[in-house]
Structures are given as C-alpha cells and as structure tokens.
Amino acid sequence: VSSLRSLVTAARTLGREECEALAKRALSFATADETRININSGGRGNTRFAVNQISTGGDNYDATISIRSTFGKRSSVVNTNKLDDASLRSAVQLAERLAKLSPEDPEAMPELPPQTYTESRGWSEATASLDPPARANAARAITEPARAAGLVSTGYLETQAGATAIANSKGLFAYGRQTALSLTTTVRTADGTGSGWAGATTHDFSKLDPKDLGARAIDKARRSVNAVAVEPGRYTVILEPTAVGNLVQFITGAMSARNADEGRSFFSKAGGGNKIGMKVVDERVTISSDPLDPEAYANTFSGDGQPIAKTTWIENGVVKNLSYDRFWAQKQGKQPVPTSGTVRMSGGTATTEELIASTERGILVTRFWYLRPVDPRTILYTGLTRDGTFLIERGRITRPIKNFRFNDSPIYMLNNLDAMGRPVRVSASEAGGPGLAIVVPPIKVRDFNFTSLSDAV
Amino acid sequence: MLALDAARGAGAQYADVRISRNRVQSINTRERRVQGLSDNETFGFGVRTLVGGAWGFAASSDLTRDEVARVARQAAAQAQANRAALVRPVVLASAPVTKEGTWRSPAKIDPFDIAIEEKVALLLSANEAALKVPGSRFVNSAMFFLREEKTYANSEGSFTVQTIYRASPSMTVTAVSSDFSDFQARQSTDIAPMGRGYEHVLDAKLVENAPRWAEEAVQKLSAKPVDVGRYDLVLHPSHLGLTIHESIAHPTELDRVYGYEANYAGTSFVAPPEEKLGKFRYGPEFMNIQGDRMQDGSLGAVGWDDEGVQPETFLIIKNGIVNDYQTTREQANWLDWWYKQQGKATRSHGCSYAQSWSDVQFQRMPNVSLLPGEQNLKWEDLIAATDRGIAIVGDGSFSIDQQRYNAQFGGQLFYEIRGGKITGMLKDVAYQMRTPEFWNAMDMIGGKDSYWLWGAFGDAKGQPSQSNAVSHGCPPTRHRGINVINTGRKA
Q: N or C: which end of chain B has fewer CB within 10 A?
C-alpha cells in the first residue's frame, strides 16, 4: 500500500499567495470600470462500494476562475479553468464584451471596498490526505462485517479539499480553505426484505468511525426485516437527527426577504410585508448560522465579498432575520444579511432512546427520501421514509413497519413539537455528499401527516 | 494516447480516456432586468482503467504531458487499491471498434454564434408580453446552452469525436392575489429542453406564448380546490414524460436492479431479472416502451456512448411485458442467459455516460419513450371519451420511493372533465399511485400525431450525484380510477 501512496498526490489547492497572484494577473488584463475575480480550486476523491465490494471511485483536481466585468450598470460573468495568460486574457475580454452588450441593470450594486474578515476555519490534514487505499480501508470496515453477517452493503465515501478566494479591482481580497467529508452506507438483507442506513459528515476524517457507522446500519437492516403495514394517518413521530436535518434545511432555504416582501413565500405577511417579528414555530426553537461553529464550519465571506457573521434566523420561535441581498437591503433600508453554508437548530439533552422511552405509541424515522416541494405557500413537502422505520409502543420499539409517504411542512412539524434531544451534525443531503453543514437534534412531534404506504424496502 | 499508454504501463488491462471542452452559456432575467449572464468553459480529461477486474478513475484540468501521465498512473493505482474488496471482477461485453468516428447533434444554428443582445432582447420582450396580462406580477425567463466537444479513445482502438448541443428556453410567470393571500406560478413546461441549437429557442415562440402562460397563472388563483377521490386521469405528454421518467425509466436501469445504487438512487421493484424478463406485466398489451439514443433532437442522442459503443434502439417493455433493461458493457454480460434465450447477441445498449471530464462514466438512462397507439387518437379524443375525470397539463411536483413503487405527481394545469367536456380549472391537485397499478390502469393511448418529446436536464443518479439529460417521448394517455389528493393548506 505504501508504494501506491507515492503515485497518489494528496489533494491540491491553490494557496493564498497563488490566489493573490492569479487574481492580480487576471485583473491586469481588465479594462472595465469594475472587475471581480472568484477562484475555486481543489481536489475531490470518492470511493463507492456496492454488493460488498468497491464498485467505482474517482479522484479529480480542478481550478476555476470566474471573472465578473462591469461597465456602469452593465455586467457579465465568464468562468474558465484554463489559467494560462492567453486564456485568461481572452476570458477577461469575453466578459468585457458580453458586459458591454448586456442591458443596464437597474439593480446593479458597486463592488465592495476592502473588508475585514474573520479567518475561515475547517481544514483537516487527515481529510485532505486521505488517498484511495485509505478510502478503501474505510469501505472495508463496513463491507467485511456486512459480508460476514450475510448482508449486502452499499455506500459512499467522499472527500473534498478546496480553497476559495475573491478579489476585486477596488483592492478587496479574501481567502479561505476547507475540507469536507461524508460517509454513508445502506445495508440490506440478501433477500431484500430489510434495509438500514447510517451516515455521517464532518470536516475531519479523524472524528469518523467507519466501523461503528457500519455496525449501526447492519443493526437496522437486521431489525427492519419483514416490516408490517400500519394504516397511514397522523402519528406521533420521533425523527432521528438526519430526518430532522432533511426537513429543517427547507426552512432556511425559504428565508429570502425579497420573496417574502413580494408576496410569494411562506414568510410573506397577509396584507403585505414579511413575517420578521412574528412567531412561526414552537418557542423552544432557535435556528442560526455561525461560520465558526466548530461542529459545522463554513466560509466567512460570501461570493460577492461580504463578511459572514453569526446570524439568528428564528429565535425562540420568532422570525429574527430573513436574508437580504445588497440591492434589496438598500431598497428596504435594511442591512444586507447574506445566506450561510451552515445551520444549527437548538435542542435539549435527551437521547433518541429517551425520546422513544417517553412515547406511548409512535413511529421512529431514520431518514427521508425524494423530498420535493408541493406548495411554497406553506413550505409543504412530500417524501418518503426509508431504511429504518419502526413502530414504538409503550416506550419500546416493537416492530419494523412499511415505509410511508408524507405530505407535511417543517413549519407545522416545529409547531407540533413535543420534545427535542441533543443536536448533532448530520448528513442531510439525499445524495450522500457533504451538503449543507447542519447540526440538528432528534425530535418528537405530534400529528405528522403520513398520506400513503409504500411497498419499497 | 499518452494516457492510454501510461495506464497500460501501470498495469491496466483496459483503459479509456475522455477529453472534453464544455461551453455553457446561461441568461436569466426577471421582469425588466437581466439577473445573470454567464459564459462558462471547462476543459479537462478523465482516464478510466480496469486492473484485475476493478475500476479506477482519475481526472484533471491540467493537460500537460506530465500531468496526463500522472493521472493515468493514478487511475491505475486507484484500481489496484479498489481490488482490495473485490468479489466479482468486472468483465466487459465485446463491442465493435470504431477507428475514427465523428458525430454532431442536429443543431442548425450554433447558439454561441448568436449575439447576446439578441438573446436578451427576446427574453425581455417575452417578459413584457407576460406582464401586460392583468394580475401577472412576476416573470422569470432564461436560456441555457451547452456545446460539448468530446474526444474519446480506448485501449481497444476506438477513437471518436463528437459535438453535442443542448438548448433550453424557459419561463415562469407568477400571479399574486391582491390581498397577498395566495400566489400561483405557471412554468413553460410545454417547451422542453432539446438536443438542438438556437433554432429551438426561435421555435419556442416565447413572446407569442408568454401571454397565455400569464393568463393561466392568473386563472390558477381562482381555480376550484380539488375534491379528494378517485378520478380518471387524462395526461398530456408535457406531463406524462416525467411520470415515465420516474416510474419506468429509473426502475429499468440495470445497476439499480442489482443493488449498485442502493445507497442513494435506490434499487428497483423490477427485480430480479430472472423473475421479470418475459414474465412481469407492467401495463396493457398496447404498452411498448423503447430505449434509444437516436430520436432526432432528443437530449439522449449521441453517435457513441462514453465507452465507445454505438447505441441501439431496444424495447424495454414489449406488449406490456418487461423485455429488457438499460445496460453498459459491464452489465450486458449479466443478462447473457436472457439474450441467448432470445437468440440475440450479448451487447451493451450504449447507456454509458459521464456528466463531464471530471466524473467517471456509468450506466445512465437513454431516451425512454412510450410508443404511440395504433389508432390515431388525440388529446381531445381522450377527453371526449371521459365522463368524470381530471386532465393534467405540464409536469410539477414529483416524488417516488427508492424502489419506484409509490409516487406522487403534481402538474402545471388541472382541468375538471364532466361528460366528455372540460368544465373548469382545478388547483392543489396531486395524484398518488403504485407503479404497476397505475400503468395497468391505462386504458387509452394517443396516436402518432399526438406523440411529443418531453425532456429534462436534471436526471440525478450516482455518488457523487451526476446530472444526465434525457428525453421521453409519449402520446397522451388515460388512466382509470387514480387516487387524487388535495395539497392546499393554510399558512
């Protein structure tokens, strides 16, 4: 294995000085009134396993530059991954030509002057240096116990190590680099009658225990065999943190002040305006974003160069902030509030097991699948339970049950809140990539709306 | 060739390399302004290797000699590492070698030759036409173009060069009630993305169609909320394409059937093949589902797939019975027994695809289409024959389980049918179905004159998730007694 390592370079990213030099080179070709440069570079590695063996994998490296040229109120963006002088010059020229041809934008905002940023955190050497043999070892920590147990494991490990930088013709510059990693597995019984999932995401591979994660999926697969049908309807549910993350991210995704002010959002107020200051969910719920959250790091600057600070979106059930882009903030006489790549929801101290023990009759949900918006007026979504759905009776899990389709809104869900457990970082992206950095608790909720049964295992 | 030599030098028994240059232009507008105008180019290469029956893949945007050799060796080293847990070695079905092949999408006008101001002017005039309709408040419109120049070579001697175009014009008009208590949107789902050039944008007649989409958005505000219950559904091709995509095209992907996508996209109820091929009734006798990468202007059309195979047209469902699956070279061998039984050669159907140079190719769906019925029935004929039903136009909200049994679909426009006539507009409609029952409840099908090619860009599968673009052709259909729910709630 050690001889292989020499062939496999660790993830490459452009450093701060390299980004500064590249931005300076691109800006030197610019003749526009204002020019903004965004640079993204990095490597992604992945290993997939299926039917207890590695099926495919991939390692790739890319570095791209985005050039935004502005003349007066006219602008355009050109992206390229060819970074030699001639290519850069022609990309800048193309951006300038397209900008001149585009109509004036009445909402154009000038580039920001230099800003002060907190340094982005969230780089882990353990993640950045993870190579194919190390990824294969992590996969085997799941596939071998699964095979030994006569089960079929499938899963995915992805690592990202990337740097992002922004510069503009007014002298603004920001740089940050981060790693991200996710490992997810679905273990099924050989006859296809049971399926269990487990997953985790973190920026630091050393915090991950693939064997433990695999063991949880194996346990769920075994316990989910021969599920029985329970009539669809409104049930008390205990949602594991992943299931909560699956749904809560839709609330923060719908918090555009402009859509609300324009009357086309859940956050629109009847009669006009938005719901800032109004109570929308249970008073125990606070939802915030902090790019320096040690469990969920994100970038400390936005794509247009605004510093990103901690933002509270919902505080004790009341809407505290909506996101304002720079134009809408100016028009409404507000401060801009950029969106963030991280979300944290408040919680309690209970474990999922304690939430189960407190439940007379209810349903435990491991995760949701195929979530799609049905009605943006209420953030109503549909989707299905998957890979570990169980009936709870008198404080105990008594049997596996068939999967349900639901039609419900995370807003209703957080109004029907019974109890919350301890928040944890979850892998809330259905595709199994690192996704949004989100920390959420397990919750117990009344009257969750299951509308039909699914035969899918 | 340098990459292939380096990969073989590093122990690969088979290798292929894709070099591609993708140019993408997108223009997004709302009301009277351009929100975004961007032109993207990405250039790079990916090398796939087979070492001792295990795959490896590596890619880079740096096309220097040293980097090409390094990436090829890296792909071989990765394959070597991936052998660690090998259970069933990969064996490729044989494929004819194409020594020098070229192919180009049937694009008449290269979108990148059209001046940006012409495109912007067209979108803004369409927006203006929509905003003239009283009650229409917001309008978004967009154009998206792709030109992919892809060169492929493999260690067996195939070498192909292809130029692939895709074009997608689109609009969404939103109406808001005067008291801010409701809003409704109409998306231009009767214009599908296609594998064509700028002529597709001109053919879409955005300016001419915009007032109709705006009027329909406004009408939705005062549409009657649907009563829940069972209805006969008459489904327009602009709606049905998505239902075919989710409930037929996905479950007949052979990698899903064998559990390879269990962790994300899911498995399939059309499994195992031994129990389904030639046996399982998916729908009525007149139901024929074709897989192809040939249809003129379709999103799936190519000359060769991403492992050098010339695709063929094949019947996935024949006279209502499962007849075949979507395959790559690795997968075709898995159905060897069936092809022998049928007296057919074992070969890939040409369904290998990667979204870009930086991603590994794997099995993706071709165009999967419902062939028209023998009687030349039209949309109007299906409505006239229906006593109590709902006609659905355009695709909307959609969701389906991981084995493709239980699905829920919304739409753009819903019309109440009473006594063979459309009597008014409905809203908050979605139908819930179980796939085999839904297709076996199909009792009428339109003919060739009502066949239409629906399409989508965002077909997601794989980890990391890759995006595929496919078309699904179909005529309108009628399905008896389908469960309809009301999705409206109060905020």
A: N
